[in-house]
Amino acid sequence: MPSIPWRPRVILSGRNFRLPVQATDDNIALTADQFETIATRWCERDTARYYYLRSPQKQGDYTLIATHSGNTEETTIQVRTLDDMRQPHTHNGAQWPRRWPLGQNYQPTKTRQTLQNDPRTERLNEETIAWWSSQPDHVLWSQLPPAELPKAHFANCHQGCPNCGTAIFKYSGFYPWERNHLPCDFKSQCPNCASIYPSNNLIKEDYISGEYADDGYGYFDAEGHIYLFAATYHRDQCRAYHAGINALTDSLRATYLDEERTRKLGLMLLRYATEELYLAAVPQFRYGPSKGVEEPWDWGQPDWAEESDPVAALSRKGTIRYSIDTPYLIESLALAYDTAWPLLREDTELVERARAFGLSLQGPEDTCTIDVEGLQDIAAGDRITINSNGRAHSYRIEAAEQLSAHIHRLTLDITSILGRAKVVAIEDNKIDFGFQIPAKSGNLHGTRLQTDDWAVITNAHNSSTWPPGKIRTTITIDPNNNKLQNLSPGTWVQVVDYVIGDPVLFEPLCRG
After folding, report:
1. How do residues 205-220 score in pLDDT, each as one tens digit?
2. Residue 218 Cα distances to 155, 232, 272, 294, angstroms
3. 88, 378, 437, 494: which could join 473 in a potential S-S bond, CB 3.0 to 4.6 Å?
């Protein structure tokens, strides 16, 4: 009689996983309609055939059937999209996903940057910044491994290295392995004998090749000793990914909000959020409690959601990272999001680039959207001029939604934000920035300088400074139209075309 001792109860569409089928011999067949078989191998030690499968793209409940000598065993796997998993639901008496607010749809509440006056890093890692800034989107996305691959603390605390043994321990104790994480390659090199493990290439979905293959659950030597090369590398790679987020955040806070670099940071945050949302709904792939030594899994990761008290079972469990890392992780991720937020809330290019990785994003938060009062018969294709006494820029209306008899919500063709900068000096009504606002200085006249409140910009000019070729912007604000409070050097500000209360001039499209 065959058995399927482990399977993912729920899995994200299009994800890879290992399915064990145990029997007395290898006369096994598996029927897994819609699942792609990537590889398969027989393991004499476990008397099991391992199938490496890719889940279907279409959501649904799928039945897999193992057959051995005329006998069958069935199991069901729920395949869900990320949007499916985000929907509040109850399983085993607990509410899922485990994210705030429980049992309710998420609604963003952020309206402004709030963390930019926090201390900044004094020394930047220019090499790390350069690497992450130069990578194409698909490389950035792939640097955070999928959650289905397990993680572990120690590769092997007893036998050390499969080739040179315990001699490896004279290098950094129980964390001796040398690894490259830029880019991710899942390879570990012994610092003593220079041997490299595992022999297979997980990056290319190779789970079985070579004498020292590690499919994510460890390599076993002839005596049955386990070496968790892939799982410990995965743990370290997640730390490297977080370090990349920190590096780009530090760079943007130290200089200016370079749009392309900010998009890369935004894409990395979306990748991180994808796995976090996944693990909020499917705790089976969370980083579980630390093991003091290397231990094999019982066929696969335990499903904490199936425990008698699933909420209590999540105690001391991490998500992408180990549980004790959570406090400083949340702090740095919040700072990264706060830093990139001005672009994330408006940038349609980032939305399009994220959609290439399967994210069903409708658009950036509050994309070029304003509420206007007192206009009638307004529709897509019409134009409006906002702040007619200032810059008086004309905007095309992409969509119009009537909220009440006198109020419409308009989606405009471009954002109102002209640039962002850090204040370096203030003298009377003149404000000096450390670099150039990326706009012609004449286009800044009559616009607004904005933090929590705003002031009218009456004049602006760009001037060269040291080192040669560096340009910085200086503006003058109107003292009679200045609502800013406690503006000081080091404060991040933005220049916007209009603010709440500005007049709107309606330019209807001629319709036949």
Report:
1. 999 999 999 999 999 9
2. 9, 10, 25, 9
3. 437
